[in-house]
Design a protein that fits this description.
The complex is a heterodimer of chains A (519) and B (99).
Chain A: H1 9-31, H2 34-62, E1 71-73, E2 78-80, H3 82-102, H4 125-132, H5 140-156, H6 160-178, H7 185-217, H8 222-232, H9 236-252, H10 261-268, H11 271-296, H12 301-324, H13 329-348, H14 358-381, E3 384-386, E4 389-390, H15 400-403, H16 405-419, H17 425-439, H18 443-469, E5 478-479, H19 484-502, H20 505-514
Antiparallel strand pairs in A: 1-2, 3-4, 3-5
Helix pairs in contact in A: 1-2, 1-5, 2-3, 2-5, 3-5, 3-11, 3-14, 3-19, 5-6, 5-11, 6-7, 6-11, 7-8, 7-9, 7-10, 9-11, 10-11, 10-13, 11-13, 11-14, 12-13, 12-18, 13-14, 13-17, 13-18, 14-16, 14-17, 14-19, 14-20, 16-18, 16-19, 17-18, 17-19
Chain B: H1 3-23, H2 27-52, H3 56-86
Helix pairs in contact in B: 1-2, 2-3
The chains are: A mainly alpha (519), B mainly alpha (99).
């Protein structure tokens, strides 16, 4: 007789909102008439994400999650702790903003940035006919909600098998979403193929790591892994397993040297999906990295510390140096995302097995501010358009400030935040992770991080200079007038970027209080 | 045959799969190599289940099979869509995105 596991429904509520909305979305897709599908799908997806966000906040405010309050549920498979709930709320909130970007209908003449019928071959007569029709794709909403559910499961997984299943639940919809661009469909499909093949390759590594850890410890539960590590750390099978698990997770987090897919996929995917990937996937992947390293292998930190140290340096240098040579803004932001992954790893190194780890709260705060700023930056990208869709080449941004001072100012704010200039949220985030690393004696790494920040600042500021101090080209792109969804996203992200830079205290405290992992 | 033999066989299959992903040109063959990697993991899991005397590993193998099946659905759909446009499934032909 198998005993049914005990389910703590209040703790599962954020996940249930997302997966419930995704399942309802699939049914709507099948049964609702085409004319009403878009508003209904949007409403379902927003109710799911906002519901997930609010229930996570409610859970955090009504329950003691720090210290002994941290708990596990569903047969020890899921963790209910401060860090898990904080990251779940972050993912759901950023997810709601991305879904608003998906819903923008005023910018593209064809009323959507997603292809009307993904199954029609690109360039065929039927495809050209559909390009100008006002038919919109709504499958992207359930796909995004499933991916968000997977991400929220990923950061709460207390078991490597659950982590693997969540990894696939978040990845599979993302592969499809990359291939749904309305314009430049060949690029989009190519991005989907590349992301899929490399993503499946990386998942196989994660899985083999899981199998080796299982062989070494007899269990895949993180608490059991921790016990085995404490008893017999340095076991070859275990170290090999950990290395393979790290490869799988670093791929998702787009950390160099596992970053090769990032620029291609970020460039080819529809811009709202790129925003979604850049913000939410990064939060989810780093949530899982933190949990694996701090809980599973926290008592054996000297096995992973040198590895993470090296990867962080490589990632920062690759992101900053290759970012310099880019002429396409989406690609440039992709390299920026690789450099930021390196900065995040700097925070991950602020780990202290004996007491509070300053790295945990710093990394969580950085993930939040980076996610908000990135979504904002990509939202601006969707607005600068020429006849062929979005104009992402650097030269089309020349003299933007003369055409549209407000948009140029907002973009400048996001770019300054990505560069980490004081009085923006990016500075506070960088300061937090660097201080955490210094507290732990990793100051050489922080020196490298500061130098690469300076290099990276060059390519962000180059865009700012181009927008303000060059003459606009006569046949340059136009600045689209955004509808309500994009306006909300821009307002929220710009306000958050500014507020978290000027008065970050309360959110930093919140991250500090939430910084505990069950284990 | 000891359990170690099975583990070595699984490691060899995993390596063949990984090398295949890196050197083969056809997207379908690359995908088959990924499946080979997943199945070598199944063999490893079942062997370890036998070695540790627990059933967890056998159950995990089922999870892996289900995930692999879902991956086939998504993967073939994506490869199919690019094949219908280009009439080729070679990963070398997919070269619009670079630098």
């Amino acid at each position: 007789m198998i005993e049914a596991p005990d389910l703590d429904y209040a703790a599962l509520a954020p996940l249930l909102f997302l997966f419930g909305a995704a399942c309802i979305g699939v049914l709507v897709e099948a049964f609702a008439r085409r004319e009403v599908r878009h508003p209904v799908q949007l409403a379902v997806a927003l109710v799911g994400t906002v519901g997930g966000f609010l229930s996570a906040i409610l859970l955090a405010s009504t329950r003691e999650l720090s210290g002994d309050g941290a708990d596990v549920t569903a047969g020890d498979a899921l963790a209910v702790d401060g860090a898990g709930i904080f990251l779940q709320a972050t993912i759901a909130g950023l997810g709601a903003l991305s879904i608003l970007l998906f819903a923008e209908r005023a910018l593209d003449p064809a009323r959507s940035s997603f292809v009307a019928a993904a199954a029609v071959p690109a360039g065929s007569p039927r495809d050209r006919e559909l390009l100008t029709s006002e038919r919109v794709q709504t499958e992207v909403y359930p796909l995004a909600t499933f991916a968000l559910g997977g991400m929220m499961l990923f950061v709460a997984a207390n078991d490597l098998l659950v982590m693997f299943v969540a990894l696939e639940v978040l990845s599979l919809p993302l592969y499809l979403m990359c291939g749904l661009a309305r314009r430049r469909r060949l690029l989009s499909q190519e991005a989907a193929v590349k992301y899929f093949l490399l993503g499946a390759f990386a998942s196989a590594f994660f899985l083999y790591g899981l199998a080796l850890v299982y062989g070494a410890t007899g269990s895949v539960r993180l608490s059991a892994v921790q016990e085995a590590v404490t008893d017999g750390g340095g076991d070859t099978l275990l170290v090999l397993g950990l290395a393979l698990l790290i490869v799988g997770l670093m791929f998702k987090a787009s950390v160099a040297p596992f970053h090769t897919w990032t620029p291609d996929v970020y460039q080819g995917a529809p811009t709202p999906v790129t925003a979604f990937m850049a913000a939410c996937t990064k939060v989810a992947a780093f949530g899982a990295i933190l949990r694996l390293l701090y809980v599973g292998f926290g008592t054996d930190e000297w096995t992973w510390r040198p590895l993470i140290y090296g990867i962080a340096i490589v990632s920062m240098i690759v992101g900053a140096v290759l970012g310099l040579t880019q002429t396409d803004l989406k690609r440039m932001l992709a390299y920026s995302s690789i450099a930021h992954a390196g900065f995040l790893l700097t925070g991950v190194l602020g780990f202290d097995a004996t007491g509070d780890s300053p790295g945990l709260s710093a990394t969580m705060f950085y993930l939040l501010v980076y996610g908000l700023t990135t979504i904002g930056a990509f939202a601006v990208l969707t607005m600068i358009r020429d006849g062929d869709g979005e104009a992402t080449h650097l030269s089309s941004w020349a003299g933007l400030a003369q055409r549209s001072p407000v948009i140029a100012a907002v973009m400048t704010l996001f770019l300054l935040a990505l560069a980490g200039i004081p009085l923006t949220s990016g500075f506070t985030g960088k300061f937090a992770v660097f201080r955490a690393a210094i507290d732990d004696g990793a100051w050489p790494l922080v020196v490298v991080a500061l130098l690469t920040s300076a290099v990276a600042a060059f390519f962000y500021l180059r865009v700012v200079v181009l927008m303000y101090f060059s003459e606009p080209a006569p046949d340059g792109p136009t600045v689209g007038v955004p509808g309500l969804p994009t306006t909300i996203v821009l307002a929220v992200t710009a306000a958050a970027t500014l507020v978290l830079g000027v008065v970050p205290g309360s959110v930093l405290d919140l991250a500090g209080q939430a910084a505990n992992l069950v284990g | 045959m000891t359990l170690a033999h099975y583990l070595v066989l699984a490691a060899m299959l995993f390596t063949i799969g990984a090398v295949g992903v890196l050197v083969r040109r056809n997207a379908i063959v690359v995908f088959m190599c990924v499946e080979l990697m997943l199945n070598s993991v199944n063999l490893t899991l079942v062997t370890f289940a036998r070695a540790t005397g627990t059933v967890d590993g056998q159950i995990m193998a089922f999870f892996v099979m289900v995930v692999a099946a879902a991956e086939v659905v998504v993967g073939l759909a994506i490869i199919m869509s690019i094949y219908r446009t280009r009439r080729s499934a070679s990963v070398d032909d997919a070269n619009l995105l670079k630098y």
